[in-house]
Every structure is written in structure tokens, then in C-alpha cells.
Amino acid sequence: MQDGYLSRTPIFQYILVSLLFPLWGAAASLNDILITQFKSVFSLSDFASALVQSAFYGGYFLIAIPASLVIKNSSYKIAIITGLSFYIIGCSLFFPASHMATYTMFLAAIFAIAIGLSFLETSANTYSSMIGPSKYATLRLNISQTFYPLGSILGILLGKYLVFGEGESLAKQMANMSPAEAHAFGEKMLQHTLSPYRFLIFVLLAVLILFLLTKFPLCKSKEDVDKEKKGRIKVGIGETLKYLAHNRRFKRGIIAQFIYVGMQVTVWSFTIRLALVLNPEINERSASTFMIYSFIAFFVGKFIANFLMTRYSPNQVLLAYSGIGSILLIYVVCVPNMTAVYAAIGVSIMFGPCWATIYAHTLEVVKEKKYVETAGAILVMSIIGGAIIPAIQGLVSDLLGSMRLSFIVPMLCFIYVSIYFFGELKNSKKMIPQNNTVDETISE
């Protein structure tokens, strides 16, 4: 179509694009395993252990704009292939990292994976929303995002059985060892981190081959395609940023995505730690089961939301979800027993549709489609919230001496997300009788 959307969805290509979502879900959930493992092996504070997420989501922030430039100058397919290649390189770096046994080297490997995932998310999120009729863009992206928790569950299962061991928790085992014995034992435990990434390399190579052999539609606006054919200068970053800076709803969407991603990453990063603190009798392998429950809950939440969105507006559904999520996090903060862990799992149900809906809605307010690739990249850059907010919670936990009380950080975040969707609901009601002035309303 003129705006880059397709008149119909090519099913095989859409399935392949959707299969990318569980791939970055697996990498993200493995970070939750690494945080718990590294905290004991390297004797880290909660703040220092959260730097795993800072390295991971910091890579997203730095690479999103370059990834959008690759899309602009080539295609979504090339950006996806580039992302898969960097992902494979990052996984391979875990081999030297495990032998060097330094926290810094592991962070470097995680950062390299994040470079690949930034390419994948920048391209796949926007591509999934555009690879079909525009009126189904939000639903299409939500369906693709439904595959994400399947990858998250896979990542946790790989970590549970390939990284964590049997017996008492690492902290208890190492507490009874001499410094030399603890160091040797820690190095042995670090070798276990290789196994999940070895498995991922084989899966990624298979997916890369499929993308190399499959033809994909461009999904670019007619204006961009005409410029490419005529060799004219493309829209620059400066012009795009100037356009987006005057769009208040786009800016509100960026802030909401920043807060949401940070909140989600924070809850998932510290659920295992919360379980270990509230029940010292369990070990890391047992505690990781709660993360499996969390991702199953996330998956269920997405399915329920997809059904509800066929009957109610996405903003109504998300307002209800975020309101309930805020209440559950208040429970986590206030209740000092294991039921708080189950409340944290319940929060994952409410996470379900947030990312995809904020992303698609924010992208929709970019009416000039020649700016859409860069707008999508800036939305992906908002993932930097996953680097900052977990570190804040880790710092709060260290200062208060309580992992449970530190959940006040994601609680405040979910309250803000509730306010955002309330505002979006009011906006959508204002726009219904003013179809002829939609662009003016969006600018306001």
C-alpha cells in the first residue's frame, strides 16, 4: 500500500518474523539466571548484580538508531540477518568468558548479544506491525509478542537444569569453604553458563539460514521506495527527530515504554532473589521454578488480552491490567511471606499486552510514514529503562536491607503506566467524533 502496509499478510514470512520474538525472550530470561549465579560466585551486591541488565539493555539503547539506518538503507530482512549474526557472536563470547572467569568479560558477552537483539527488536517489532493491513497492526504485533514468553520459559528451563546445580544454594555452599576452595568452586560453576548458549547457537544458525533463503516484502512507504529508485537523498535523522519532537503523544509513549520495560525487567530480575530471601530453605534451582510460573502467567495474560481486545478497546484492557498489576505489587511490598512471590508471579499476567500495545499505539501516531523506521528505533531505545530501573531497585534493596521493600520501585512504575493508559483512553474518546481532525489532535 502507499503507506508501506500490505493489503494482506504473507503467512509463512509472518510466522518466521514471529519466531524471532522467543529468541530474544530466551536471552532476556537467561539474564535472570545469570544475576542469581553471578551474585554468589563473584560476591556481588544487589546493585552490582543488576549491572547484567544494564549491559544488556544499554546495548539496545546504543544500537537502535544504527539499526534503523540499516533498515532505511537496505531492508528489514538485512537488519534481521545482521541481528542474528551479532546474537551468534555474543553467545560464542561466553566460551572465553567462562575461562577468563571475570565479571567484566561476561558483561562484554552480554553486551554483544544485546547488539544483535537491538537489530532484531528494531526490525521485527515494526515489521510485524506492518506486514499486513494497517487496521490489524496492533493485533498482529500482540500475536507475535505472544511467542515471547515461550522463549522466556525456554531460557529459564535451560538455566534451571544446565546452570543451577542440586543441593543447597550457592551462597550456603560457598560460605563453608576456604577462600581458595570457594574460588575453585566458583570457576567450576561458571563453566555451567556455557551450556545454554551452546544450545542457542545451533538454533540461531538454523533460523539464520531460513531467513537467508526466504524472500520478504519491503513494507516501506511508496515515497521512500520512489526516492530509492531515483537515487534521491533519504530523510535524515535530524529531520526525523525534529518531526517527532513536536508530537506529544509520541513522547508520552516513549516515557511509558521506558517505565514499563524497566518495571518488567526489574520484577523478573529479582523474583528468584525474593524467593530465596523469603524462604532460605530452597536453592537456586527450586527458586527458578517461580520464574517458569511467571512466564507461563505472562503467556496466559497475553492470550486473555488478545481475546479482550476483540471486545474492548486496547486502552480499556490495558488500564484494567495496569491497575490490577499496581495492586499486586503493593501486596508484594506489604506482605513479608511467600505469598508475596505468588503476587509477583500474578503481576506477570498483567505485563502481557503492555509492550506491544504501547509500541503499536505510539508508532501509529507517526502519520508521516517516511519517519517510521527511526520512530521504531527510538521506541526500542526506550528499552534502556531495563538498564536503569533494575539498578535503582538493586540500590534501594542495598540501602533498605530488604529485597521485598525494594519492590516499591516497580510498584510506582506500574502506577505511572496506569496513568498513561488512562490518558490514552481519554484521548481516544476525544478523537472519535473528530475523524476529520485526527492529525491535529495527535499533534496536540
From TrEMBL:
Its annotated compartments are:
Cell inner membrane
What membrane topology was assigned to this protein in its record? Answer: Multi-pass membrane protein
Q: Name one Pfam family in it.
A: MFS_1
Looking up InterPro entries in the UniProt record yields: Lfuc_symporter_FucP (IPR005275), MFS (IPR011701), MFS_trans_sf (IPR036259), MFS_TsgA-like (IPR050375)
Print the keywords alphabetically.
Cell membrane, Membrane, Transmembrane, Transmembrane helix
The answer, when asked if Hydrolase is one of the entry's keywords, is no
Residue stretches spanning the membrane = 12-30, 50-71, 78-95, 101-120, 141-164, 195-213, 258-278, 290-309, 316-333, 339-359, 371-392, 404-423
Gene3D superfamilies to which the protein is assigned, alphabetical: MFS general substrate transporter like domains (1.20.1250.20)
SUPFAM superfamilies in the cross-refs? MFS general substrate transporter (SSF103473)
Q: What is this protein called?
A: L-fucose:H+ symporter permease
Q: Which organism is it from?
A: Sporolactobacillus kofuensis
